[in-house]
Amino acid sequence: MTADAAQYLGAGLAAMGIGLASIGVGLIFAFFLQGALRNPAAAASQQGNLILGFAVAEALGIFAFLVSLILLFVV
């Protein structure tokens, strides 16, 4: 395996984190909606946790994207 092939393989594996982060965001909102429909009175108190979970999952996707770009263009 050449160095270029290893570089592209590593960047592709790092880019998989972007798709996994989008799955995580979807699950966060799905479970919030499920809980809000079961207990509407508690939905307002859980909205802060929803935003925090969304931000963390989205940040992990952005970090995975940056790692893949670094592997492609810097290394």
Automatic annotation (TrEMBL):
Keywords on record: ATP synthesis, Cell membrane, CF(0), Hydrogen ion transport, Ion transport, Lipid-binding, Membrane, Transmembrane, Transmembrane helix, Transport
GO molecular function, one term: proton-transporting ATP synthase activity, rotational mechanism
Residues the record marks as site: Reversibly protonated during proton transport: E58
Topology of this chain in the membrane: Multi-pass membrane protein
GO cellular component, one term: proton-transporting ATP synthase complex
InterPro entries: ATP_synth_F0_csu, ATP_synth_F0_csu_sf, ATPase_proteolipid_c-like_dom, F/V-ATP_Csub_sf
Compartments it resides in: Cell membrane; Membrane
Chain's role: Key component of the F(0) channel; it plays a direct role in translocation across the membrane. A homomeric c-ring of between 10-14 subunits forms the central stalk rotor element with the F(1) delta and epsilon subunits. F(1)F(0) ATP synthase produces ATP from ADP in the presence of a proton or sodium gradient. F-type ATPases consist of two structural domains, F(1) containing the extramembraneous catalytic core and F(0) containing the membrane proton channel, linked together by a central stalk and a peripheral stalk. During catalysis, ATP synthesis in the catalytic domain of F(1) is coupled via a rotary mechanism of the central stalk subunits to proton translocation.
Protein name per the record: ATP synthase subunit c
